[in-house]
Specification:
One of its GO terms (cellular component) is cytosol. GO terms for molecular function: 6-phosphofructo-2-kinase activity; ATP binding; fructose-2,6-bisphosphate 2-phosphatase activity. InterPro entries: 6Pfruct_kin (IPR003094), 6Phosfructo_kin (IPR013079), P-loop_NTPase (IPR027417). It comes from Trifolium medium. Keywords: ATP-binding, Kinase, Nucleotide-binding, Transferase. This protein has 84 residues and is an alpha+beta fold. It has two helices and two strands; from the N terminus they run H-H-E-E. The longest helix is centred in the first third of the chain and has 18 residues. It has one domain. Strand 1 and strand 2 form a beta hairpin. It starts with 8 loop residues before the first helix and ends in a 7-residue tail after the last strand. It has a two-stranded antiparallel ribbon with strand order 1-2. It is globular and about 45 Å long. The chain is 43% helix and 12% strand.
């Protein structure tokens, strides 16, 4: 079954959570923030504001995932079917 990727949503959610935590720990934006939870709230507020102006990609489908902690990642173009 060449070209088929089967994954679960939890692996994406785990990667997203790790990336958020890594971003807060490593970003100069949060270097002066002593309270990790305050940084987490600020970052999630930023993401919510970005979501208000981002537009969905309509032509074809495209997924790009990068695990910022390990640097590993990949991309899928023209995905058809369902991610399991």
């Amino acid at each position: 079954m060449q070209g088929i990727l089967i994954t679960d949503d939890y692996s994406y959610l785990d990667m997203i959570e790790r990336n958020i935590r890594y971003k807060i720990q490593q970003s100069p934006d949060y270097a002066e923030v002593q309270d990790f939870e305050a940084g987490l709230r600020d970052f999630k507020t930023r993401v919510a504001n970005y979501e208000k102006v981002y537009e969905t990609v309509e032509e074809g489908s495209y997924i790009k995932m990068i695990d910022m902690a390990s640097g590993r990642g990949g991309q899928i173009q023209e995905k058809r079917g369902y991610a399991l």
